[in-house]
Automatic annotation (TrEMBL):
SUPFAM superfamilies named in the record: NAD(P)-binding Rossmann-fold domains
Key words of the record: Chloroplast, NADP, Oxidoreductase, Plastid
GO CC term (a single one): chloroplast
Protein location: Plastid, Chloroplast
Family as reported in the entry's similarity comment: Belongs to the short-chain dehydrogenases/reductases (SDR) family.
GO molecular function: oxidoreductase activity
Descriptive protein name: 3-oxoacyl-[acyl-carrier-protein] reductase
Pfam family, one: adh_short
Amino acid sequence: MSWWSEETTAVVTGANKGIGFEVVKKLLKLGLTVVLTARNAENGSIAFDSLRRAGFQNVHFFCLDVSDPSSIAAFVSWFRLKVGVLDILVNNAAVSFNAVGENSIREPETIIKTNYYGAKLLTEALLPLFRRSVSVGRILNISSRLGALNKLRNPNLRQTLENEKLTCEQIDATVTQFLEDVSRGTYEKNGWPENWSDYAVSKMALNAYSRVLARRYDGKNLSVNCFCPGFTRTSMTGGQGTHTAEEAAATIAMLVLLPPEKLTSGKFFMCVEEPNKIISRL
Ligand SMILES: NC(=O)c1ccc[n+]([C@@H]2O[C@H](COP(=O)([O-])OP(=O)(O)OC[C@H]3O[C@@H](n4cnc5c(N)ncnc54)[C@H](OP(=O)(O)O)[C@@H]3O)[C@@H](O)[C@H]2O)c1
């Protein structure tokens, strides 16, 4: 028997399309109640309506731009009033302005603000609303192997982020340092990741934040992990990839619904392409 029911509530960000939309659909199919959020009201409503038309009743929609703290505050107020408690948070929303194979830096502040601070601020605001009894709360941050620490060529930066006593302040200082290096034109020389640099740093910070949060909640009924879906066919990759968003979503649903005794925290999971569905833990 599964541990969840229609009382179990999940929030998914950036869910009007791509992997986020498929995660919402998969969790609904499995019988949970899901809050679909999207930054664009019209696109979010279209996605929500399509799920309602497909017969899913336990789906809600709220317009949430994770890069905007006032939008996060409005969402959390609404959630507290209308839904109340939370079991699962999937921080999926993200941006990248590079095409596959391209490595320019464009709008790095937007990328950091969305992919790192967006997930962090939303998480911090929702932490008091996690259900504490019945089961273990679950946060899954959708990340990328581009943000793995071995992509950092600067040993000092790597040492900082690897430190077991790492703090949120140090992560924030690290992304600030990256943005300063970008504006000075010194980011290549200073050993930041070479591939999709701004996006990679945002995901590196997200991974580091996940480890800090997992440590903060160790033994307190909250599991915090990261997952890289691999090269998935969505608009972020211009439709290229080795598998569909639906396949990536099936793995995400499996991870967030693991039975309490199998849950880990502070881990980074990823799909290995051959064979497609295997998960490895870094
Ligand atoms: N596809 C891959 O190969 C791949 C690989 C590794 C990791 N990932 C990660 O997987 C996750 C999903 O990406 P995807 O491939 O499904 O890309 P996608 O199709 O481009 O979807 C990204 C979603 O995030 C939303 N979003 C962007 N900025 C937002 C904001 N400020 N507030 C709220 N939502 C926002 C987008 O909304 P709009 O429609 O309004 O733009 C869209 O719904 C991301 O975290 C991505 O980094 C993807």
